[in-house]
Amino acid sequence: MTRPSRLPRLFRRTVLASALAAPLIRPARAQGRVRVVMVGGGWGGLSAARHVRKAIDGAEVTLIEPNRAFFSCPLSIHYIVGERRAESLTFPFDGLIRDGVQHVAERAQTIDRKARVVVTETHRIAYDFLVLSPGIEYMEEEIPGFTEAQGAIPVGFRAFEQQAVRRALEAHPGGDIVLSVPPVPYRCPIAPYERAALIAQWMDRRAMPGKVILLDQNPAIPIGGPTIETAFRELYPARLEHHKGVKIVHIDAEKKRIETDKGVLTFGTASLIPPMRAGSIVRTAGLGERWANATFPTFVSAADDRIYIIGDAVGSTLPKSGHLAYETGVLVADHIADRVAGRTGQDGDALPSAICFAFFTSDEAMRVKIEARWNDLTRDIERRAEIDSRRSRNAAQAAREWSEAIWAELVG
User: What is the pLDDT of residues 2-16, one digit of tens each?
Assistant: First the structure.
């Protein structure tokens, strides 16, 4: 018999307020001077650090993250188009540190799995359990000319990169703005479409000549297609062009020219998203190739039972979303607490849920929620999606309340 999931079900249907008030169900606190190290200070790493401290009395928790603050990629499009200040999305780690988490402001370079040590520029940090949440990196080599065009064509899909996209918009010389959607899988499946819509609104408000041209390298929108296409058609019929199944063949930033398998176009400003893969430490540690290999439903590495893999670096059919990374951090913290306390019961079959929001105007958004479970018989992930059929102000308000609640939980 499997035991019930202990994941924090923060959102029950659409009743956001009551869901946020629901308590997290946890096992009894484990005790022991166990050393738990987190690599990566995003949604997954911070969640795991916070909840290990709650779940295990006396745990020595270390966060390895070169940045000294957390920057939220969800809602960052509002910063890009000038509707929010960067400070409203940036949160120092002071609260975590006050709660006893040690912060090493360096980059994790390698993992000595035999010695159970993470190596940074100046430290060798020993662990009993390692939670690896390194996020994604860009496969720049997949788009010829992209590496040479980096300074002129920002991406903005990792924390603190959004500033470059905002500067590019502010300096927009006129003409078309070209954006792209990378081939699946990639971080936050509906985010590139949100970006296209709000930049189209940004152009509308300034009565700028030109269009937003969205080059989609997928044959269809991965999720929420009817809602997204309806929003594009109703809101920006003359401002936004969405081209599906387009392969970018070459970029010439100096000539402001993009060659695709369906033709050539020029641009005034461009922000393109290359294909993605897990952070390089996954490969250097022998934990996977493009994506990390994890076992389900525990997220223990397939190569090392002392390492957990969470967040966007995981190779699976689960969406790569901040909320899923957050819930996975809670699940992993509880699983480590069970192991420290010697509880070896069977794991439940529930997997973390993914909640994503996409804005189409400053005040209207859609919500996507994906719930998943692990089918031990078929050795597969089963998913069930709840997708808003229309954009609404209610979803926009829910997105703001959701983000504020999660940020408070992550960093205090």
Answer: 333 344 444 333 333
